[in-house]
Amino acid sequence: MKYFSVAETEEKPGNTLLDILREEKSNKYSGGIYHKTQIELTYNSNHIEGSRLTHEQTRYIFETNTIGVEKEILNVDDVIETANHFRCVDIMIDDAKAALTEKFMKELHLVLKNGTSDSRKEWFAVGDYKKVPNEVGGMETAMPENVADKMKELLAEYNAKKEKTFDDILDFHVTFERIHPFQDGNGRVGRLIMFKECLKYNIVPFIIEDNLKMFYYRGLKEWYREKGYLRDTCLTAQDKYKAYLDYFRIKYKEDENDR
């Protein structure tokens, strides 16, 4: 099975994808891989979850910090969560090398949902685990009283592995989504975590675009029966991100790995 990892042959400071993302973020560089990642990851991850903002509107908000629309009604939460997701991507880049923790995941959720209509609901825990049972895709998820223990168990098992593989990251994502620890926003937080872990372990990251949505959901549902569905979907998404790297002349290496 082929997958792509960021080139390790010249791992001097400033050469890895993470280094480049951090440098462009710090320098507020427009038109590079950081700019591209912010817009594509935010637009697609929000769109999968029902945001009605267009790609152009998402780009405009990122570039100008304004909305700029005429004769169109926008959902306020869509705008707020888009701006919040940009901040989440920054946090993910800043903390990419850090160990994955409950605190980090809760911070992403807090930032993502801050200021939304959900944050004003008494039963909605922003930046904390859910208080009310929920389902995802018609499947039952962990009960609120069991979430903390299940998340600790998941993180302990995952962090015990010294080097994470592509499949390890996908397996974590599937379990995370099946636990569904937050009241809402689990998909977006989960996909940010996958991106972070790919950066940490020098694996080319990927963005699940809307055209892959149904394949992605099928992969999540069938993971324990057939890993190839989700793996192939994410590898297809990885090929798209690889094309971005080619365009920006960012090196990576191609690996053969039979999983």
Summarize the structure in words.
With 259 residues, this protein is mainly alpha-helical. The protein has a single domain, classed as Orthogonal Bundle (Fic-like fold), CATH 1.10.3290.10. 55% of the residues lie in helices and 5% in strands. The chain has a two-stranded antiparallel ribbon. A hairpin with a 2-residue loop joins strand 2 and strand 3 (139-140). Helix 9 packs across helix 10.
Summarize the structure.
With 259 residues, this protein is mainly alpha-helical. Helices cover 55% and strands 5% of the residues.
Categorize the overall geometry.
globular
Topology, number of strands: 4
Rg measurement, Å: 18 Å
Q: Could you give me the name of the CATH homologous superfamily? A: Fido-like domain
Beta content comes to: 5-15%
Contiguous low-pLDDT stretches (5 residues minimum) are none
Q: At CATH's second level, what is the architecture?
A: Orthogonal Bundle
CATH uppermost class:
Mainly Alpha
**Proportion in helices:** 40-55%
User: How many structurally independent domains?
Assistant: 1
Output mean pLDDT.
Answer: 93
